[in-house]
Each structure stands twice: as structure tokens, then as C-alpha cells.
Design a protein that fits this description.
2 copies of one chain form a homodimer. Chain A has 499 residues and is of the alpha+beta class. Helix content of chain A is 33%, strand content 26%. Chain A has 15 helices and 22 strands. Chain A has helices spanning 19-27, 30-34, 67-86, 139-143, 146-160, 185-191, 208-229, 242-248, 269-282, 287-293, 362-383, 396-401, 439-443, 463-474, 483-489; strands spanning 2-11, 43-51, 54-61, 90-103, 115-121, 124-129, 168-173, 195-197, 204-206, 232-233, 239-241, 260-262, 299-301, 317-318, 325-329, 333-335, 350-360, 388-393, 413-420, 427-435, 447-448, 455-462. In chain A, the strands form 5 sheets. In chain A, strands 7, 10, 15, 16, 17, 18, 19, 20 and 22 form a 9-stranded mixed sheet that branches. Chain A has a 6-stranded antiparallel sheet with strand order 2-3-1-4-6-5. A 3-stranded antiparallel sheet of chain A has the order 11-13-12. The first copy, chain A, starts with a strand and ends in a 10-residue tail after the last helix. At the A-B interface, helix 5, strand 9, helix 7, strand 10 and strand 11 of A face helix 5, strand 9, helix 7, strand 10 and strand 11 of B. Strand 12 (260-262) of chain A pairs antiparallel with strand 12 (260-262) of chain B, so a sheet runs across the interface.
Chain lengths: 499, 499
């Protein structure tokens, strides 16, 4: 990675008198420009010139001291030199050229903010930043470290296209239990009238029997986890605004899977009269006209379930004796625009999840995760009697945001729970549990009275996934279900009969 | 209302030989064109002319026999006359002019399908339909009664702007109970840390205490209604597509209050890379760019809660002994783009509702409504001890769709439940119950084995509204709550303390 920066420092007066002192300063600037870099690396002033009341500078550098950092490093000692001895102030800086060159195996075709041009030549991306009098990147963007964000972006992007593999490490595996069933539970539930397709993609309508199975899972979670571990129920909102996703980190990359939400531009019925009239006459909704009349997206339907919880604590400081805090939500649906094809209830666009969230000190959060894992093991082993396993995997936020290997994250991570589907031999991820480190408390500015770092964790119990795991191994006939599950399930409700 | 229609009937051959017979036919066509109209009213053929192999017609009419109906009425006897005696067929018809004139106190400025021009002159709308060789309205649109849809639209529209008043008729009123509280419960809950604003408009995050009150309401509904009346739980989808709203009738007018949902045009990450890069560098979401990358709206977030249920029964026939069917759903949120301003939890954009749905014969549905009303009365009188009243009001579907006074709807309608808010003296609608007649079974093509008409009803228990009614009359201090409520509520959970 190479940087080439051309900039001028604007002075409050002609600095002719200081020319010798400046020559001396730039001659000895090496240590400033190489501090922190490996031997022989860093930035250098390739040329400088005093032109009346400005100093023109050319700085070349490698990745270890980036050229714009070098410029910022020079500003203060130069100001001191000129101010003390010559009563001349450094008024500001103008950037006239800023080029970055980085190794790459591909071109970038789309626009990037603050970038004027990207060429791909000889295995390198040659990037000209949008500087100069008409440019978008000037002194304040340099001071706000915009070039660093561009460089991080390039690093993440070029690395992630190298085909980073997901981490997966087996932690524990149950005994292989003899399956009671070997068919696709979605097909069987459809035949039995337990579920029907909804009118949207990846959406199901659950009849009385399927709903009762879901509610039995919920009852198990309440009796085996929520009650004994003392979780308190809350109601988290189900429409997530950009503001929430900015703080949770989802705004970095969640777009391809979101069901976006747009409000009407106004709720004045007269504004919508043309749409209503069109519909009443043609019996078709004029979609292009509707699109004109809706506003920019304000966010999307609930994707992850816990981000909206954090608004409850946003900007607060928590008393030490209030920690750890443990809450859960089961108040609505989550929606993801999943890849196409037929997946039955194993992969759906609209799903139902009990979301468990806890926060406290690092030790408290890690200890709470262990308690939850013990509860899950008991449920999957002794109540659902599944063939299942659990593995340490790349956490979602690391996969999405590239936060690997931060030392402050030691102890954070995600555990997946997987169950085998006897009808096709695949393992389905039916549950997970994440320790998210400081991510959320930092993102939503929640602090501990003690000053200690706050950590948090979350774990989603996806009812469709539990049903996929359980019903594919045990089938739809209650007489094949484990005794402990049957006891909690009680009498199955009648289904709705049709002719 | 006046109609003026100019059209030609295309014949399979020159009809010169039939000219006298045609003259005789049109001379005696009066009864055909006036049948069903009051004396002296109806349509008339103002002129006709045989021009080789076509017959040019001018028809003028009033509202009693609309000109296009008159044209259709003439076709068959003319075909018989020409076919039997002259072996000439009527091949089709071309519309060259179709004008409608209707009294109005306002102009219509927007486009209406199949309409070429609308002028407003002298208290009348003068409408020229889009006919002729390049026009959108021809024979098949006449046969499909498009002009009738336009006329219905005009009638509804011109009537509804006359300021139709909502019907409201008191059915029953409780004794006025001494309020235990006279402050705004939303403000008090905020002060007590029970709730916080969500990040979206009209959205709240409910802490442990508020959630526990909601769950106590739910428990009351389960114990006093769902259990005793034998309702079965189902899970209704929470993303409503246009297809559902076409069948439920909401597509006619619900647009101003919808949170519209748009999926991404594709879930290919490369397609979204520019958006992600923009965000990572600027920390702002590029909303205009996102809007380009999302697809047309596929529908919206759940508005009414029962329409998506009907997909479960769509196109089926129900055995007589399966009726009545009684189900409920409590699986997620509803969202309405409400009018602005501050309403606290009394009027919210995101709310939580237990939706109760029943269907059967007319008698069964009306009888079930009475049972529900008795349960509600018991709850509001003996458990919540509210000051409340109930009134017969204009049903939502009549208000929205103008289906007033249909004889087949006798017995259908909506009952509102209202409670007084002591802090401002207003009455809040906190509950309703509707008998919807044949509306939904017809819309979703659900039939009864017996051939009898199927009716349905629905009733939404809005938890925010119940909380508004209850907490504004009883306050937040459990010691002021009625004994029967306290017993079901049990111990209130601790709230989350902040510094």
C-alpha cells in the first residue's frame, strides 16, 4: 500500500524570514514521520517549498505511517516553530492531490464516497481521492480520519473476496438417537393440514396443531430457562429504524436480506385518491404509482431481535447491584429476505423467535452464557431427546464487520446448535448463543457505575428451527414423542377439517 | 346522471336487405331499453343508421338503464333478427364516444383509468371515456362492466365528500366508578421507567412492569374467553401482500395508513456493495441509493390482523359439523401510520393485539358475537372495574367501502367499547367487535358444505388500548387495582433501575 499526498499549509503571513529554520526542520523530520513504524518504514517529505505565505508539501508513505497522518504529525511542531520564533500562524491546509495504491485481484466498479477515480492496473488499484478546491475531501475530512475509513474498507473488501472460510469447531455431540421418522416434516405437516403457505415468500400460516407445538416449545423455554434463571419479559419493537441499525452495526452490511419499510409520504386521503380510484376500477394495485407516493425507507422489519431492546438503556449508567440484567422478548415476528427455492419451515422469510438478552461485566456475561448452555443441553437431551451437536463458529458480527482478533473480544463468540434431519442427512442450525463483548453497550452508550466495561450476550430460540429439528427426528405422531415433551404438550388440539 | 354513447355494431355482411326489418326493430325497441326503469325513464336510441356492414347507433340514457347496458341489451335480439332471417352475424362493436355527466360540487384533478377527460362545469362533472381505435375502453371493457365501476366510484366519491357522519348509538353504559387516578398514564409510566420511546414514530419499548400488565390482560383473555369458549390458537402471518388485501377489501382504501414493505431487488451482496461502502465511510445510509435498489412494494406490515388467517381456508369447503370455527392469534405486532402529534400509548403506530376470529352460518356467527360480548362485559365490569360504555357504530368495511344498507348484511355491524380517561375527560375506543357478514368468506372463496352463506366475525383486543383505559382509571400503584385484577397479576416484576 502506497500513499502520495500533495498539500499546502496556509500561513498567516509571508514566512521568508523562517526559510532557513524550515529547511532545518524538514531536514530533521524523519523521526516524527517514522515513529511507530518498523525500521526503514514510514512516511517521508519528498519535497517542500516555501511560496510566500504557504508551504507546499509532497509526502510519500507506506501503510505504517499513512501520508495524511504524517501531515497531521507535522502540523503541530511546525506551528510551534513558526509561532514562537516568527509570530506566524498555520491557518489551515489545502489538499491538492491524494493517491492511494493497493494490491488487488479485482477492479471496483462502483462509486465510493470521497473517491474521484479508481483504476485497476497491473494487479493494483490506483485510487485518486476527491481533493482540490471543488473536492469533497479537505482538511476536516483528513482530521476526521475519512482516509482511514477508506483504507479499512479496502482492506476488508480485498481480504473478504479471498474466500475467507467460516470457522467451525465441534464442542460437543450427543449420542446418535434412532430417528422415529425419516420424511420431510414440512410436507407431512402440509398433508396433515397443520400448516399452509402464506401469500408471501417463505411465509406460513400455522394451524392449531403446529401452533400448539410452538407454544409447547415456548412453555419449555419459560419453565426451564426464563423462570429458573430469573429473566424478565420485555416487549422489543419490531420495526427497526436506521438509527438502531447504525448503533447495532447492522447498517454496515445487512441490506441484501432486509424487508425495507417505507411510510406513505402523507396520510392525506386526497393524496391517495388516484391510487384508490385506479384499484376500484381495474382491481389491480398501481404499483409504480404507489412507489411514487411512498417515502424513503425508514429502516426495515425486525431482522435480529435484540437491537431495538437497547433503546431502553441507551445513554444510561447502570448501578452495579443491578447487574447482570437478563430479559427476553417473544412479542413478534422476524423477517429476512432469504435465498429463493423451497426450504419448507427450515428456512423461512418470516419466523418466530424467543430472544434472550443479558448484560453485565465480562465475567457475569460469560458465566450467564454457561448457565444458558446447561439449560439448552438439558432441554435437547432430556426433553426433546434430539440427535444434536454444538460448535464454536465465526460470530455474526465478526463475519459481517471483520472484527477478528481484537484482544478486547477474548471470550466473545458464537456457539451454534445443530440437529440432524434424518430425511436428508443434513445438519440444521436450530439455535445459537452469542457473547457479543462490548459491541452493544458501546454502540448504544450504556455504562456501568463501576466504570468496568459492559458486555452482553444474546440467544435466539427460533420456533420454526426447533420444530424442524424436533419433527424431522420424531415425526408428527405424538405417540412417538419423548415422554417429557408429551407431558408438557398435553392434549393436542383438533385441527381444522376441510372437505 | 346522463349517458351519451356512440357505437357501431360490426356485421358479417352488408345488411341492406334487412333495412326495413331494422327500422321496425328500432321503432319497437322502447320496452327493451326501459325495462326495470321507473315510468318514462331509461335509455333510448336517439339515432341509428345502416352503413353497409355496420350499424351506427347513438344511445342516450339516464341512471336507470345506463347507455352501455342498453347497447348490450340490444345485441342479442339484433343478432337473432339478422341471423335467422338474413344469415348475417353481429361480429362485434366499436365504441366511438361515451360521455357521462354527473352532478358534483367539486372537480376531480387526478387521472382515472379508462377516462380521457374530466371537466367540471356548472355544477357537473363531464366525463369523456377513453374510447375509439386508440382508446383503452372497448367492447371487452363494456362487457366486463368497467363503466359500472367508474359510476360506482363517482357515486361513492361524490357522496363521501358530502361529509357523511359516523353512526354512533349507545348500547349500554356502566355505572360511573370513582377514578383512582387522574393523570396521563403514558407520562407516569415514563417517569416510573415502565416504558421508553422506541426509535420509530408512535413506537414504545415496554419494560418488565408494563409487559407484565400486558401479559396479565392476555391471561385474562385466555382464562375468560379463549378457554371457556373453546377458541384454538393459530399463528397468522404479519406481512400482508396485495393479494391478501385485494381479497379482504383493504386494497380499496387502506394506503394512507400503511407501512409499505419493499424487498431488495436482489440479495446479491455485490449489488449492495456501493451502499455498504458508502455507509462504512460516511456513517450515513445513502437513502436515495437504497430506494433505487429496493423493489416495488409487495404489500405492507400487518394492519388488520385477521386477513392473513383466511389464506388457511382459501378455496375450501367446510363440513357442517366443523362450524362454527373459532380461532385466535397473538403472534405479533400491527402497524399503522397514524396522524402525527403526541398520543402516548393511547394512539400508537406499532401495537399489540389479540385477534379473535370466528365463522359459521349467520345464526352461529351472531350467537358467538353475543357470547363474546357477555365475556367482555364480565371482564370490564368484574375484573378491570372500568367506567365504560358500548355503542353501535359504522363498521370499518362500510366506512371504507360504502357497503351501506345491503339487505344481505342485516345483523352485521360493529360494536365499539369505550372507556373514559379521567385525566382529560375523553372517551377512548379500547376494544371492538365486528360481525362482517359474508365479506371474508366471499372474498377468500370459503364455502359451507350445506350451501348456506358463511358469515364471520372478528374482535381485536388491543393491549395498548386496554392499558390506556385501565391505567388511566386505576393508576400505576397495584394497591389501587381491583382485587380480581391483582389476583391474576400476582407479584409485579422489578423494573430495570438506572442511575
Amino acid at each position: 500500500m502506497k500513499f502520495h499526498l500533495e498539500a499546502s499549509l496556509r500561513l498567516s503571513a509571508d514566512a521568508k524570514a523562517a526559510e532557513a529554520a524550515l529547511s532545518d526542520f524538514f531536514g530533521k523530520a524523519g523521526p516524527i514521520l517514522q515513529k511507530g513504524a518498523p525500521d526503514g518504514q514510514g512516511a517521508r517529505v519528498s519535497s517542500w517549498k516555501l511560496a510566500g505565505s504557504k508551504i507546499d508539501l509532497v509526502i510519500d508513505s507506506d501503510r505504517y505511517v499513512r501520508a495524511h497522518d504524517a501531515l497531521l504529525r507535522l502540523r503541530r511542531p511546525l506551528s510551534e516553530l513558526l509561532g514562537k520564533q516568527y509570530r506566524i500562524g498555520v491557518r489551515g491546509m489545502d489538499i491538492t492531490r491524494f493517491d492511494i495504491e493497493v494490491d488487488s485481484d479485482r477492479a471496483i466498479e462502483h462509486r465510493i464516497p470521497y473517491v474521484q477515480e479508481i483504476k485497476f492496473e497491473g494487479g493494483k488499484l490506483k485510487i485518486a481521492l476527491d481533493v482540490g478546491p471543488q473536492g469533497t475531501l479537505g482538511q476536516s475530512e483528513i482530521e476526521n480520519r475519512i482516509p482511514d475509513r477508506i483504507i479499512s474498507l479496502l482492506e476488508d473488501k480485498l481480504q473478504s473476496y479471498g474466500g475467507k472460510t467460516e470457522h467451525w469447531e465441534l464442542l460437543w455431540e450427543s449420542a446418535a438417537r434412532e430417528p422415529k421418522f425419516n420424511r420431510d416434516p414440512t410436507e407431512e405437516m402440509q398433508k396433515a393440514g397443520w400448516i399452509k403457505h402464506g401469500s408471501s415468500r417463505g411465509q406460513w400460516i400455522y394451524g392449531p396443531q403446529a401452533t400448539h407445538v410452538f407454544r409447547t416449545f415456548e412453555k419449555i423455554v419459560l419453565e426451564e430457562i426464563i423462570g429458573p434463571l430469573g429473566y424478565r419479559e420485555m416487549i422489543f419493537p419490531k420495526l427497526d429504524t436506521w438509527d438502531v441499525w447504525k448503533k447495532s452495526g447492522h447498517a454496515q452490511g445487512v441490506y441484501p436480506e432486509i424487508y425495507f419499510v417505507c411510510p406513505p409520504k402523507t396520510r392525506d386521503p386526497a393524496f391517495w385518491e388516484e391510487v384508490m380510484d385506479y384499484y376500484k376500477i381495474t382491481h389491480e394495485v398501481p404499483l409504480e404509482l404507489v412507489k411514487e407516493k411512498i417515502d424513503l425507507p425508514i429502516g426495515g422489519m425486525c431482522y435480529a431481535q435484540c437491537p431495538t431492546f437497547w433503546g431502553f438503556l441507551q445513554g444510561t449508567t447502570l448501578p452495579s447491584d443491578e447487574l447482570p440484567i437478563a430479559v427476553f422478548d417473544r412479542s413478534g415476528t422476524s423477517h429476512r429476505y432469504e435465498s429463493g427455492g423451497i426450504h419448507g419451515i427450515e428456512r423461512v422469510d418470516e419466523f418466530h423467535r424467543i430472544e434472550i438478552v443479558w448484560l453485565g461485566t465480562r465475567e457475569q456475561v460469560i458465566a450467564e452464557a454457561e448457565k444458558l448452555k446447561a439449560c439448552y443441553k438439558h432441554i435437547f437431551e432430556d426433553i426433546l431427546e434430539l440427535t444434536w451437536r454444538t460448535a464454536w463458529v465465526t460470530p455474526w458480527f465478526m463475519a459481517q464487520e471483520g472484527k477478528t482478533g481484537l484482544s478486547e473480544m477474548t471470550g466473545a463468540g458464537t456457539v451454534d446448535y445443530e440437529a440432524v434431519l434424518p430425511y436428508n442427512g443434513n445438519w440444521i442450525e436450530f439455535q445459537n448463543l452469542s457473547v457479543n463483548g462490548e459491541k452493544y453497550p458501546k454502540g448504544f452508550t450504556v455504562k456501568a457505575q463501576s466504570g468496568e466495561a459492559l458486555w452482553s450476550g444474546c440467544s435466539g430460540v427460533g420456533l420454526e428451527r426447533w420444530a424442524s429439528a424436533f419433527l424431522s427426528q420424531k415425526g408428527l405422531d405424538p405417540s412417538n414423542w419423548p415422554e417429557e415433551f408429551r407431558r408438557r404438550c398435553g392434549k393436542m388440539p383438533r385441527g381444522i377439517r376441510i372437505l
